[in-house]
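Dear Dr. V.,

Thank you for agreeing to look over these. As mentioned in my earlier message, I'm a first-year student in the group and I'm still getting used to reading structure tokens, so any feedback on how I've presented them would be very welcome. I ran two proteins. I've put each sequence directly above its structure. The first is here:
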Amino acid sequence: MARHGHKKRTPGRGGGRTNGNGRRPANGAAVIIARRRRARQRHPMTHALLRISAALGLTLALLTFVGAGVAAAAGYLGWSALTADLPSPDRFEALEFQTTKIYDRNWVLLSEVTDPATGWRTAISYEELMDHIRQQQNDPNKPHRAWIIDATIAAEDQTFWTNPGVEPRAILRSLVFNLSGESTSGASTITQQLVRMLYPETIGTERTYRRKIREAIMAIRFTQRYSKQEILMMYLNNVYYGNRAYGIDAAAQAYFNKFAWELTLAEASMLAGLPQAPSVYDPTKNFELAKARQRYVLDRMVELGMITRAEADEAFAEPLYPQSREGRYNKAPHFVNFVLDYLETKYGPAAVYRGGLMVRTTLDLSAQQAAEEIVKRRVQQLAPYRVDNGALVAMLPWSGEIIAMVGSADFYDDTIDGQFNVTTAERQPGSAIKPITYLTAFEKAGWYPGTIVFDYAKVWNIPGFGRYEPKNATGQHFGAITVREALANSLNIPALQAIEVVGVPAMIDMAHRLGIKTGFWRDPSYYGLSITLGGGEVSLLELTNAYATIANNGKYVPYNPILEIIAPGNNRIYQLDRAKTLEQAPQVVRAEYAYLITHILSDNKARALIFGLNNPLVLPELDNRPVAAKTGTSEDARDLWTVGYTTDVVVGVWVGRTDNQPTRGLDGISSAALIWHDFMVKVHQDPQLAKTLLGPDGQPIPVEFQRPPGIVEVQVCAATGKLPIRGVRTVTELSVRDGPPRLRCNQASEYELRELRAALATPKGMTGRGWSSLQAYAAMVGVGPRIEIRQPTPTPVTGESNSPAEGPGTPSPQPTPPSPGSSSPAPTPPALPGEPPSSANP
């Protein structure tokens, strides 16, 4: 498969070392060349002649072995001793490794994964190389020839295409020099070098005639087994080019940031000269020596008729700027590390670090960079309030694709432990957890957005703990208030009443179903009521995933960082089926209940009581596009949250301090919500980023939240949220077709009466609006002996009844658990953990 997203590196460091014509001084190279010439002039031929008979004898034996007289030579050399342990050409000793590459969704390279003990390697086939060359024929800026093939043959083995795997004349030349006390190179063909690389234990590297002959035998066997193209590509894919680059494609990317098929003649001739002595000719450190070696390769290409002298001179004059590959690809480091952990868990470390996987992730690098900039800028602005860190995660709710993950304000800032990924850390979510509590109440207690709850200075006496007296963020209380306003304005007492009714285990079960898989792992008794105010701990990633489930109308799609994985040989071992992901997702909570939460969280008028109409949770820049969001603030403002979604993206943000110390004067709406707002606007307004938010069919997802068919509008009593009676003021509210309200306007359960009387008797912090609402409720249900207490038939605890819809004004015949719509006794409050619970803010 073609890989995309690489851009040619512009001239970088080292550019100042060139002279006027683009060349660099070659004084060092001149010295090396002069020394070699003098060495050749010093060869004592008379001394060599004294040994030439022995050399010729051994050479003739080898030539005989290579030719037709194999049997005689084998007997002389001891065939069984030489070949007994030689392996089959089909099995290689050297464990081939390849570099795993992590890409964004648009094939932009994010990172390369290497085994620290090895380096980079990407195998390419001869067909792949030539296919790309053919595709470049009409591009004047790309080479029209695979220069690396000609350059390598010129540098290493000029008879490669015709020799049988060994070159007798080169062996003779080597023997003459070795016997004369000198050393030389060139005795090994490309095939001989290859078998040394592939059989390091069997062939070895010692300088003995026995090793040389065994190497020759294996080279001949290789030539008989494989085509010349296959042998050449095996060599090019395994030879070491220095700087931890194994193979030509890794070398091309290491030094010139391009693929092997994109190498110019100048670049190819420089790289072809490196395998002889990679550290000596390292162009990033010894550029003059590398240029001298390049000149040698170009001259050999001219001698062999591969290029003209003019082409060689032009290539030598071409300015080159080789750079080290170390640390070059380090984009989205938190996300890349997250992906590596994900891959290791699924495929094992060996596949990740040596398997040569091409991993196309879900990340949009442009969205990631926008998120990084926004988080860093806003955290700097919040520094006067003792904020030093922030995190963001964004995903497509319908597919779980993570398009951005910012684990800290600065990955490279050690003062904030920047490499730590806060998106996966468990922290207290504050009121951002409340939607899960109310969703549980919709399912288990028969509540709906119009259910009236009582907000007053309530005190719980907890066995083993004592008095528990939570407060609202403003210190005010609002009396009889609907669930819609209680959740939208993040009031604490109503949320505690909700968890008191449904119980902690049910709420934890709901959280786990929605996607909080690692959070809330302790026994429910550890948390107690304060869990609904953020007393437990969850990760930003999983809480965002839970909100995505709500956005999907109750369908759980787990977060996913991978679009596809391609193994060597273009073998696709995984691909996300984007078209069927949501369709096949499990329905973990009834769609109607999830939609009711979305409707509340997107109701800006409902939250105006505390937050006002002009708050960061609305998007006027996007024509007030529907958006559902909730903030959260943990105890002492240590953790500041905002999580919210449109129909096409869900975004979670955390702001705080790495050392878990309190911030000063902030809450979720004044900190994390700013980052959330900025990113939401950016990702929708930017045309390129908006493409990432398209649906599986490539079309924009409708902006309106999809209302399930089981949702109906009902007229209810304004004072009590019950079924209206003649003459009372009514309001319109949403409910499930077969769900609440159950009682009539002038009816009340024992639980409701108890809470009403307690609220009327607790003036502390009660607002004028609160008193008015309590009095209206009391007047509607009567006072003294005129209060009518009805025992309604409860609704199913699962909330999944298939019974016919009830008409307005007709009490449901179905059972219901204890709730504000029931006269059954209120449940015993669960115990709190052995430490003061959170007093969370909005």
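The second protein is here, in the same arrangement:
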Amino acid sequence: MDHTLKCIRSDNRTEWSSFEAEEWKREAGFRWQKTTPYVSAQNGRAECTIRSLQERMRAMLVQRSVPKELWPYAIMAAGHTLNLTPSANASRIPYEDFHRKSAHGLVKQLHVFGCLAWVHLPKKDHAGKHGARAIPGIMIGYDDEHKGWKFFTPGHTPSVWWSNSATFHKAKGWHDRPSMRSPLQFRFESLEAEGTRPKTDSDEPELEVEVLDVEDPLPKIYTLLPADPMDDNRSELGVEEMIGEAHTAILNLMPTLKEVLASDDAQQWQEAIRKELDGLEAMGTWEIVDVPPNTRLVDSKIVLRLKLDANGIPIRHKARLVAWGFTQREGIDFKETFAPVAPLSAIRALLSLAVECNWEVHQLDITMAYLNSTLNHVIYMKPPEGAKVPNGKAYQVVKGLYGLKQSGREWNMEFDKFLRRSNFHRLDCAPCIYTRGRGDNFAIVVIYVDDMVIIAPTLGTVKCIKEEIGQRWRMEDGGNVSHFLGIKITRDREVKTMNLEQTSYVKQLLDEHLDKRRRKSSVPLQDIPVLEMAASIAEQKEYPQIVGKLLWLSNGTHLDISQAVGVLARYMTQPSREHYIAAQKVLQYLDYTQDTHLQYGSNKQQDFLMAHSDANWASDATAQRKSSSGSAVFVCGNLVAWKSALQRCTALSAVEAEFVAATEATQEVLFFEHLFKAIGIDVGIPTIFSDNTGTIQVSKDPVQHWKLKHIDTKYHFIRDNVQDGKVRIKYINTTDNLVDLFTKLVGKTTLLCTRQGLGLTTQQVTVARQAPALPLREAVEGDITKRGSWLR
């Protein structure tokens, strides 16, 4: 620590006048000030700190009914957490100010004082193959000499010891520990036993735990008496307990069997497991057969998932038996595996069309969809633990069980056959989008694995399609679309608006990864981070998780973080400390704008299909001076697709960079033109808007210039389409171009204006949004409010 002790202020206790204290003072060379007897106010800061520690100590002891004899450990833990507690009048926490290094690892290590914990025993203490691997105890503090926690384990010798390997239950105390085992626990607990699954790169290495003989200052404590459960009221929690919960109270959406069977809702999980196995047997998923000699069996596992509603509230416990597809052998157990899904941008485009036409949009879910398909390969699978299968026999899987590599493909082919027999036509440009009928009988069906959206002018048409599907398969009718692919959808039919949001996903992301000590930010990123200091191992492990989740978010509804996430995604392998801080900066921005939603409205005077294009020429020194392309595609005046990416080529001029960006935007626009043409809608001539006059000139005419003669032939794609009359390119003022935030890191003012123009809002707007800077439609025949004028 680069600190020099200059002065100490204390009271007049005798230990401060001892020979050792005077010797220390002389060697260190500091001044020692002592307060006047009985005037504690002269050392007010120390007195206030002692009082704060005592208050936190009492709260920690009471909250989990910890015996008062353990107060020395409680006050030590209170001091530890107080040093990691942020304050409003300080930019950094005390630990970081004093040590000049990040406390992120220590904060993540925090747990609720007195919470129940299963402390893992070292191998030398294992009582054979069937003996316990952990013992119950309570967490009572943090060890300064070792990277671990202190535990009090009644009945164990020593009773106070430390370990760096334990399973914590933050909401439980000693009296909440389980006292019996249910038959179902015995049946399924060994599914994750040692040796039943191969080790993966993501598995944590087994920790060697050394037990030290710690002098027990409380020799009279041998057990903890059960006490009445305390009400979990956050207003009564100590500050350090709140910090512990802030970093550990993350909703576990995919728990393990061991976790759920020790949880408060174990009964619901047990029922979900029974329902899953009974359903599989009822559907004839497998046949019990003799295992042929030298046959390799595919393993299986029960996967648990907590399903949330559109608001992120748990609504159902789901259990699914899945096969371990990675143990299949290509050419023996499977051949083809590809299964298409509908592009997310195409789904948004169809939703925008439905808003403009005021069409019906419903959703439904096929129950156990994969199991409705039949396999073309013979696959033998190990029965799940506890299944009543005679020795020497196994399951011959005949249905598309989840986890098998070919199950998705087989289900898609099965559903495709059904829709084709029902006179639906599959679009070549989007194989998971189907259409049928004309006029009021017209319908669009969008498939994404086992989720489905039906779009039609009338409710009667929607009901007819649901009845056809319901006669073939079991399904869950979701009614009006409200939650699709993790995106919450709310709609107002009267004012013709639809909001798309991922608020619950954002909150889950922030709960899991946001450093709560950092303040909210009004911009995602201000500067491109450069490599200066290596990130810690924990940060390097967490960084790709954060960026991966941010990528999904930026592709869904939070388009305002696209440029920032694109920058972060360049450093997935070896991120620096600055990159991790930049990722936290994006999370701070999401915390500031977490209620943002993408709003669609009726824009009658806008071109049906158009795009904005822009480029930032050679501005990023960290990317070998490659330029950035940005584009935004609008359908009925609503943003449906956007792109922010580095160009593959190295542009030698701003015109070249803009020309490449305009070509990429043309590709996107023509995809949507083909999409709507395939479903029978005439979109007229799409328009590309650019703020570079040189690009417009080169796109319209075969201009020969020495600065452009080297451009790859593929980038002349836009010129060919402009000359053929398939698209047109027009000029737009730079201040009106809405894709600035896709090509560069912008400031708060520009970001706010651009967000509004793109349809991002944080308020429930009750009138149709009129996007600024979007020109009036010119070449689309007929009134776009009349749906019949588009359909052939």
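From my reading of the second output: Confidence is low (pLDDT under 50) at residues 180-251, 764-792. The two ends are 77 Å apart (CA to CA). Does that match how you would interpret it?

Kind regards,
E.
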